[in-house]
Design brief:
Helices cover about 65% and strands about 0% of the residues. The chain is an all-alpha fold.
């Protein structure tokens, strides 16, 4: 699993592109729709799996045993104990996914050829031809402001979620 972290993201572009052109089991083309941005982003990646595994390994076995003694089945234990406890790490993964989608350039450039669903980064690139460089850089700075604000708002949650599964005791 950790070896897949060393695979560059550019290597996965062709399989992802083939997948969104003809979505398996459904068979429709997702190009030039907003779903084409989110589908590869929410697909499991090794870093998110690693974070979730570290978190779930840190859940005390005594807590799960107590739920079993109280008569909770596996589904009830998952829904009533594990899911509420995993909100911080799920929030961190959501924040990482949202910021990753926001800052991505190559994937939206490939799969969103029309102007209707153009992302900010692709829009800056499209309008940069013939503009002075300082105007393009000003647009890039303005485009980064939502990510900075998003991080400042959720900074406490990010740090809490990353360190939740780090300590045992």
């Amino acid at each position: 699993m950790l070896a897949t972290l060393m695979v560059p993201a550019a290597v996965m572009i062709i399989p992802q592109y083939v997948t969104v052109i003809h979505l398996p089991l459904f068979g429709f083309n997702m190009l030039n729709t907003p779903w084409v941005i989110w589908l590869p982003a929410v697909a499991a990646n090794a870093f998110n799996i690693f974070l979730l595994k570290r978190f779930f390994d840190s859940i005390p076995q005594d807590l799960l045993s107590a739920a079993a003694i109280d008569g909770a089945g596996p589904l009830r234990t998952l829904w009533s104990i594990i899911v509420p406890m995993s909100r911080p790490i799920l929030g961190v993964i959501s924040i990482f996914t949202i910021t990753g989608v926001w800052k991505d350039f190559l994937w939206p450039l490939l799969v969103l050829p029309g102007e209707k669903y153009r992302t900010v980064n692709v829009g800056i690139f499209a309008f940069s031809h013939g503009l002075p460089q300082n105007v393009v850089l000003a647009g890039a700075v303005i485009a980064s402001i939502p990510t900075i604000i998003f991080f400042l708002i959720f900074q406490k949650n990010i740090m809490a979620g990353l360190t939740t599964g780090a300590l045992r005791g």
